[in-house]
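Extended Data, panel c. Modelled sequence:
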Amino acid sequence: MSPEIPRSWESLGEEQLKIYAKEIAELYRQEQQLRQVLEEKNRELEQRVRELTGLNNLFQQHLSEQSPMIEITREIVVELGKFARDANRLAERAKRQLFLNNQVTHEGNTDKDKPSSPSG
């Protein structure tokens, strides 16, 4: 048997109201579900923001702690460069001095090898 077709406008209005009421109830239920999903997503997003803020703070702290070390390291490198230049200059000076000493010694040996003059 098929459902009865309403016979009057009044019963037709009543049936339409029932349909609207069911649709509104379903829409309300869907809206509540969407609100719950949205609230959960907002909580997740807030958690991610807290995590990122914490990580950012740790990174900033790390940078502020490392910055002086980087500067000190640069200063050490500059000083080591100066030290290396000074050491090279001293080494060159020592080589020249050694060369001069060898020449003087060699010249002294050459004078001793010469026969002495009869004027002595």
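The chain has a mean pLDDT of 85. This feature is highlighted in the accompanying rendering.
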